[in-house]
Predict the 3D structure of the following.
Amino acid sequence: MEVIDARAALAPAISLLCAALVFASGERTFWRRLFSLSAALAKLVIVMSMLPGALRGVVYVFDLVQFTEGVGLAFRADALGMFFSLVSSTLWLFTTVYAIGYMEREPNRMRFFGFFALCVSTTVGVAFAENLLTMFLFYETLTICTYPLVIHDETPEAMKAGRKYLAYTLTGGAFVLLGSIATFQLAGTMTLSHPGILTMDAGRGTLIALFICLIAGFGVKAAIMPLHGWLPSAMVAPTPVSALLHAVAVVKVGAFGVLRVVYNVFGVRLLDELGVCDWLAALAAFTIIAASIVAVFQDNLKRRLAFSTISQLSYIVLGASLLTPLAATAAIVHIANQAFAKITMFFVAGSIQRVTGKTTVHELAGIGYRMPYTMGAFTIAALSFIGVPLFAGFVTKWYLSLGALESGAWWYALVMLGSALLNAAYWLPVVYAAFFKTPPSTHVEMQEAHWTMLGPTLVCAAYVILLGATVSVPGMPFALARAAVTFVFGM
Amino acid sequence: MKRALVIALLLAVAVPLLIAVADLPPHGSPDAPAHTHVAPRYLERGAEEAGAENIVTAVILNYRGLDTLGEVTVIFTAMAAVLAVLVGARAVTALDTPASALPVSMIVRFIVRVLAPFIVLFSIYVVLNGHVTPGGGFQGGTIAGALVIALTLIMSDEQAARLLPRRPERVLQAAAPLAFIMTGVTGLLLTGDFLGYPVGHESALVATLMLTFVEIGIGVGGAMVIATIFRTMGAGR
Amino acid sequence: MTTWPPLLVAVVVVPILGAVLTPVVGQWRARRAADWALGTMLLTSVVALLLVARVADGGPFSYVAGGWEVPYGIELRFDEFSAVTAIICLLGVLAIVFSRRYAEHALPEVRIPYYYALLLLNLAGMLGFSITGDLFNLFVFMEILSLSGYALVAVSGEKIAEMAAFKYLVMGAVSSIAVLFAIGMLYALTGSLNMADVASRLGGAPVAPVAVAFGMMALGFMVKAAIFPLHIWLPDAHAIAPSPVSAILSGLVVKVGIVGMLRLYQIAYTSRALDLEALNTVLMWLGALSIVMGAFFAVFQDDVKMMLAYSTISNIGYIVMGLGLASSAGVIGASVHVFNHAIIKATLFLGAGALIFRTGKRTLTDLAGVGHAMPWTVAAISVGAISIVGIPPTAGFLCKWYIALGAVEAGHPFFAFALVFGALFIFIYYIRMVNAFYFRPPRDPAILEVREAPASMLVPILVLATLCLVMGVLGRIPLSFIEPAVTRLLAPIGGG
Amino acid sequence: MIAALWHNIDYAACVVLFCIGLYTVITKHNLIKKFMGLNIMETAVFAFIVATGVVEGGNAPIMGPGVEPPFINPLPQALILTGIVVAVSTTALALGLVIRIWHQCGTIEADELREAE
């Protein structure tokens, strides 16, 4: 059931407005904080207000502008988009609070918060995009808006990372555009709809080329190996940026794009016929394992987080490419699971850096005595990644394994197991060092980060447990993911 | 290597061109399309409907008057361009033209002075008779302009400066396009068409007057433009 | 709407009259010349708008000067492609407004009246070029605009300006001669100079001369349009000229080659004397090469205007590629890009001019951080940069979209690929530029102290930047406007 | 082919002249010589167009008592009058530029100018 509702456009617009106000307020701290926080709240309220409808299967649509026949910008909030926007707007609120504390003494705060809001705006734009063109537009805009955040420190290293980031993601964007053009030419439309807009009439070779083109485009941001090179470099950004953008917005936009391509451009049935998804699944599985192995050898905490992200993102891609309802559920719900757990870890890494100045794993001996709550949150996130039951990560792994068995590709369940072991191999040493190793100096005083930083960290950690423990409770994200899957598979 | 490239380029230009011109309608044949399509009308009716016995002039000023408006605009553009490039030049480096050449000989001075009035007369003749004999405004104007150049050569700078009228100088420089546009607008008022000339026996005088006016305008303008260009270029000495 | 037919002449004659009187008016005070030129262009704009309104309403119309019938007199023909007159007038007005302060600063005072006269002549030449229906008249107007263009490049009197102008002049003159040769050949074949008449009489003509004539004409126009590898005159000339002139040269004068190409296609397609497959293929490849090479050279430029000049080569590549595709969407996209690129490039060049005017610097290195000092100008430049890359909803998007669709439609997906990756390349150096203006630490802190551009410069820049956005959102208006002309153009070859 | 070319030998001569001009433009370094090459090219084209107007045994197209057809085609002549003016104008501007280049750089040899740049 489709309903014309301006809220679908309002959700991205509100962050845009916020960005404008932040830029207008200049270096006046109070107003900037007020605008940022109230916009984050307002956006969450707007998205939440659409939730009951989305659970019932209502789709909110809104046409913004039509350039010519079939080419225009329009919004469409379906269950899948709602899920993603809900995650990103919730986390925007937390990250804004965290960033206020973290960025306390940094220069160029106006620019930071302005572009920060723009990024969220474009992320929700991608989530609610009605057609490939709108999606491309927001996808590219996100790239551009993230750039000033990546180079925030304006050091040569940051500039270099920024260039690398642009080179990768803009190339990806170009592939997306190319794919959009071809899709428009083949299907006569770009509207993302169920059960996909392409048909076998276009010819097998053409379709496979198009699939590769689109997946390569979105895969850059989803950091599928070998397109992942930008992500570890981009970690030079301030931690809230790494947290929101490289755990939630930017990378998830890529993964979300893959979901859209699989479910709404090609459609499950067509892809089944084409058989290209087997290759994509294999690539994802490879990424999951390989990135984890690399992560084990990273000493810098943020780099270890980056490779973990690369590995985790491919869960989503794997889930999507297995083409079964259970795997799809896992893929969608993992958007939230990974986001909350990873952002918790980033918050922790940022807090440690702010409080102690430490950035590498081997310096963390005994840090748990100094920052017990922070490291407690870290432990929760780590357990989630390992896939301990009752934590969010378990849900993904469980459903993904079920999905693998359902599709007959049982070996992917083994990949899940291997990934869990590898996760344990690189997260548990951190926890061990924090709590069980002796700190370098005997006299340890408890010294937590400012509450604006600690608060969001703990809330996110709590969410990780919440997501893992309340799978069967109606109205929770899992139910929304179920609704999305129902819609996609036409059940 | 470079030579080979040049030869290759020239051949690449020459061979297709030669093949093309070989296939053109035969040179001089009266049956060629160029002589059977548009031109016959000019030749047959040009003298009466365009008001000039010299059909070339009829084509220039009447049938294809817009081209000629363009042409006088081009020459005005050239003058404006030369002025814009040369006038008020800043920063001239020390390197300069060699000191002014030998003093002009007596004979040249004498001949230029003697011939000057006749040249003026001749140029006026060429301007005014353009529509019955070869010639016309631009040709006559060029002759007058050449005279100014000749006079400049034998005179001192101050004297030469006085050769051209000072006051309405800029109006006279624009005389050709101005006269043309004025005639065009007159035609618009008289016949309802821009650059239209009244046709018919009773208005023949009006048409002739208009043509003459244009010719004079072009003559004056052409002379002024050529003289101005020459003077501007010489000013750097 | 009916329009008095002689208005068609007025759109050329008014600026010519204005131009020849500008030195008279500016005799005593240079400012007066600026007022006069502005008034002239405003009047011309009114005329042009009336004409565009009529063509939108009732399709193409024509007027023969002097009241003669068609092959005998010179026909002025206003079709949808001629609507480029509206853009010419718009940019003309804005460039004149912009020049007010700029010319005083950049030129010796005595040159200013002639500067405005040449500007008007240049505009008049382009206006005439885009509305004439006669081949030789086309040549005459082409010479007016070329000649004034050469002079305008050199008018600043800077050291390399004259050399750039001379290079431009030699290449321009050779191309004009080539075009004239072709016109002479077409005349020898048909006995006519009227384009429609020539087209209808070319049918039985021998193939070799027709092919060579079309080839020479195309070659001539390609030099004017600065298509790789015939572009070598462009970067110096466009970079060294005063900024309002650069805006006109880059936005409009190179388009003369494109409009000429369109006229050539009109003749060629209608006459069906020749299969144009070869020419189209050449255009597609040269277009793709121009896109890539223009972008490639631009990436290595430090001089802002030099970069913009190379970007023009890329964008002309898009247009030429669209023309060569000979599919409906491709040609529509290319034609509309003629309009849109004019607006976008003018935004960028005028913006760069304002930066140079205030700071006296012209390299990215020196201009680093200027975004903080001149926020409005740099914001407008950023809008222009986004548009030229072709990101929706700005002006550049729809044309490129259409050209890419045209490539797929015509069965050449490779060119869509080249187009998209060309755009990516372009994106990279514009990001480099915007990045330097906003995010690089200033080399000389004094740059943070400069003031925003004066109103006479800022207003044109902002108007153009706004247009970049408006033309993006209302992009379908020019598209549907130009569509009938393209359909008519391609009808003889079964396209459209 | 050769026979046809022989018939149009006037045109062929114009083509040769055109190429001589082009050769001069390309190979000469002196700016004035370069421009003279350009003028040669222009002249070649003018000659070509005027030649298209020739009618075997034709008279000058000036009407009056006692002149008989055939007449020479007046149109190309009219065109070339305009063409010549255009060429003169271009030459004037080119010379103006050369003067300025000489003043500023002290040379008008293209290769030396490139070094000076």
Q: What stands out?
A: Residues 159-190 of chain C form the longest helix (32 residues).
